[in-house]
Amino acid sequence: MRRRTPAGLVEAEPGPAHHIEFDGRPVPALPGQTIAAALWADGVLAWRTTRVGGKPRGAFCGIGSCFDCLATVDGRPNQRTCLLPAEPGTTVTTQEGHGRADLAV
Amino acid sequence: MVGAGVVGAACAYYAARAGLAVAVVDRGPVAGGTTGAGEGNLLVSDKEPGPELDLALLSTRLWRELAEDLGEAVEYEPKGGVVVASTAAGHEALRAFAAGQRAVGVIAEEVPGERLRELEPHLAPGLAGGFHYPQDAQVQPALAAAHLLRAARRMGAELITGETVTAVDLGPDGAVRGVRTDRRRLAAPAVVNAAGTWGGELAALAGVHLPVMPRRGFVLVTEPLPRVVRHKVYAADYVANVASGSAGLETSAVIEGTPGGPVLIGASRERVGFDRTLSQEVLRRLAGQAAELFPVLADVTVLRAYRGFRPYLPDHLPAIGADPRVPGLHHACGHEGAGIGLAPATGLLIAEQLTGKQPELDLGPFRADRFPVVGTA
Amino acid sequence: MPTSPSDPSSFGPPADASSGPLADPLFDPLFDLAVIGAGPAGLAAAVTAADLGLRCVLLDGGQGTGGQYYRHPAPGLGAARPDRLHHHWSAYTGLADRLAAHERAGRAAFRGGHQVWALERTGDGFAAHVTRGPESTDRATVRSRSVLLATGAYERQLPFPGWTLPGVVTAGGAQAMLKAGLVLPGRRIVVAGSGPLLLAAASSLVTAGAEVPAVVEATAYLGYARRPGVLAGVPGKLVEGAGHGGALLRHGVRLRPRSAVVEAHGTDRVTGVTVARLDARWRPLPGTERRIDCDALAVGHGLLPQIDLATELGARTRTGPDGAVALAVDARLRTSVPGLWSAGETNGVGGADLALAEGELAAYAVAGALPEAGTLRRRSRLRAFAELMAAAHRPGPGWTGWLRPDTDVCRCEEVPVAAIREAVDDLGAGDPRTVKLLTRAGMGWCQGRMCGPAVACLAGSAPGSASGGPGPDRRPLGCPVPLSQLAAGPSPESPAS
Ligand SMILES: Cc1cc2nc3c(=O)[nH]c(=O)nc-3n(C[C@H](O)[C@H](O)[C@H](O)COP(=O)(O)OP(=O)(O)OC[C@H]3O[C@@H](n4cnc5c(N)ncnc54)[C@H](O)[C@@H]3O)c2cc1C
Ligand code: FES
After folding, report:
1. What is the CATH number of domain B213-312?
2. N or C: which end of chain A has fewer CB within 10 A?
């Protein structure tokens, strides 16, 4: 018997997978998935470190309200990956703290 | 002391230090009034020579002393202020203003336009010039009030929150005997009105007229950032707005970083009573002016906005000291947009007066009976 | 398969359509009704309002309709059977089809990716200030005579040691990521917290292939289900409950009532949890701890109404039996703000059936029409049940017993329990606002949504208990907004200007 999976459950026939880039390595993504979903599917749960304690964080609420899933996406910091679609070629970088170190004076 | 804002806290601190038995009463929590809704600038730069500047200079010294004990806890930062002008005429006006201030002990260093970005690398290019005021500083207002009160409590003061003062008790001789709250009587030969924007109501409880009115202000708070603004930076027209008596909306860019990370963007001033409605026009102007001064901010996100009601008296000076109309009644309110900065001086002067000393500054200009009664109060 | 409303090609004019605003009645600058939130309540309201002849715009921050409950896979995932993740899927597709028909006829418009961050009262009604798209790309202003708030709820969280570890996710978040993205946070997922959502989440997770070693529920569990009088009125609920129960039984999921996860273990990600028994006040009982290995934890304590847009306008609120602050509405679902209606979870959390009924009723009220008596009855039955459920799952005060001084309460600003206790014990803070001012708890990106209930509890006051304080949480900005969009100011017309 086929192993139970989310895709199996809803009899999904997704379009062909593409890739996003996460910290320099390719991560597969299905059309329509968010960045956070693609990372989860690849077993990645953390893509940010906190400002004060430097602790790893990833998606928590999954619906855009906790802002824990922030990452630097295509060079722009503080993007909510649970909302942003994973487009072919999207680059995602683990964000350190506020993600704005370049502005420091 | 009626009011647990920063002014009430400073009064309690200095009074307790002078050995008086002190109780502080507030209907809300500590810093629940305007203190919790301001920015915490300790400024001399925006004040022209006169009684308020004297008060500010005294406060500058006192804050520095306080910072030795409380410094880190209240996020005291002697960061200095930078006032900028976009036009040569504006720069000239600043120059004249600074000359007057220097005469009374303010340190003001002229900064030519091309050197502004050495002080503040993210400032917009092409500004005519500015002035650097190294005496300007900053604290986190709510922490300042809370730690002053904690220190006062350690010296024996009592803090009563969540109780509203409903009456000021007067004896047959017309002198103060204490206050009543919704829960108890507090007997005291002296009552200090540190009720901020609500100081007029408290004065009325004692039967005297004090026209404190609210002047609304909004502040925008950005996402946490690294240090992008080093000083407190503001545009030259801020000084004019502060001093203006207009009821209409006035805004000028006032920008500063905080140890917590966010940049604070002020400041608006308008007299609309206690209306809490968010104003799109205020947001538009504050954000627009901030981006004009620091173009880098256009790209950042605003997380929050908050509003407060500055305690405003018609001549922009606070009411400080004994009220000649009611023996035992003292005022320490009406500091408008400068109460955080002016709190220690106010507290010290009140404590000096309460203990029968000669106050360090002449309290004449701050007398509460200086306003004519309009109509029948 | 019915038209999927999240497929932009099949669903209405794009929000930035610039084709002659005057020619198209939908681009009239003033709609009769703006419905904010396209979940069950908002969808039902918009469709009913359009049926009744109102020109209606439906706004949602998400790209498609459905809200949290009817969240479904993106079209690109090609799900043939999205219904397998939903009860009453046909109720959704029915509404989505009707909305699509209204859109084609020019009677209603759906605008996805429209996150409303402030509502403003104007001379002729309201202006909804919007930031658009998941990246907050630009700004729009939508004007309408009246507004119906159907913004739903977000999950209530109570902190515990380790709750910030990657792999600890909200129960609703695990559901949402599964329903929309067909992904799981791990293979062996403990589900914990309190409330009916836990059962739904656990049952989705197991049917999608996860192993769920335990559902850990803080209350005695389903105490209210033993009150047949109330349940008899809500057969839908019973069926739903039985459905979840059946799936859980089939997969051998163990239900642990009167228990809580008191710690999550791991360094870079969760590797296990400690579960302890609770007394009736939710205090963990020493000596009852046991460890369960897992690679993810889905946790939540019910839902909190999302009502900032209304409280900012001064709308009256009430505190429900679950301790959550909701909007106070009258029998016709009017808030205390003239022209502002509210339906669904914003009036107190009660589930999708109740939201559907309230959405419909509110639309009738806005249109000044008489609703069906049956819907009115259904709504009051469901409301009564919701209140009962809310009371059963109200967090007990003893939960703070599982905190440690170094447990972060505020996830955004990393404020530990010790800092909050200092503010309360030494600095005179007795309410959430003062705690926030003194500790930064609640000042971060999420604006206190995750830590709010915990901070209120540690401050010794329930949210909204105003001791001269500010009343319910007030957030002038309903969500973060780019500074440049604030600087741009409202657009004078409806979109596309
Ligand atoms: C937007 C904005 C920005 C500002 N920025 C700055 C700045 O950068 N620097 C600066 O120095 N100042 C600033 N201010 C001004 C500053 O906040 C005020 O001047 C200061 O808070 C006044 O302190 P206070 O203690 O007099 O009043 P409050 O802090 O308002 O305290 C008064 C207290 O009295 C209590 N009270 C009133 N009536 C009663 C009663 N009957 N019984 C019991 N209690 C009562 C109230 O609950 C309140 O807690 C700003 C103000 C605003 C609005
Ligand atoms: S996971 Fe909460 S905002 Fe993305």
Report:
1. 3.30.9.10
2. N
Beta-carbon separation of C170 and A79 below 8 A: no
**Ligand 2 within 6 A of CB of A68:** yes
Residue ranges matching CATH 3.50.50.60 in chain B: 6-73+140-212+315-370
Q: Are B29 and C434 in contact (CB under 8 A)?
A: yes
Domain span(s) for CATH 3.30.9.10 in chain B: 213-312
Tokens of C210: 């996860």
Cβ of residue B122 closer than 8 Å to a chain A Cβ: yes
What residues are paired with B265 via a beta bridge?
A: B220, B255
Amino acid at B189: P
Partner-chain contact C168 A60, CB within 8 Å: yes
Q: What global pTM score does this model have?
A: 0.91
- What angle in degrees, to the nearest 10, is found between the helix axes of B51-70 and B339-354? 90
**Sign of the torsion angle spanned by Cα atoms C163, C180, C152, C15:** positive
- Complex-level ipTM beyond the 0.90 threshold: yes
According to the CATH classification, is domain B6-73+140-212+315-370 in 3.50.50.60?
Answer: yes
Give per-10-residue mean pLDDT for chain A (105 aa): 79 93 97 97 97 97 96 96 96 96 94
Alpha carbons within 13 A on the beta-carbon side of C413 = 31
pLDDT digits (tens, 9 = 90+) for C5-50: 333 333 333 333 333 333 344 455 799 999 999 999 999 999 999 9
The closest alpha carbon to C203, from C257, C241, C258, belongs to C241
- Which tokens go with C68? 């949290």
- Using an 8 Å Cβ cutoff, are B322 and B329 in contact? yes
Residues C22 and B248: their CA atoms lie apart, in Å, by 36
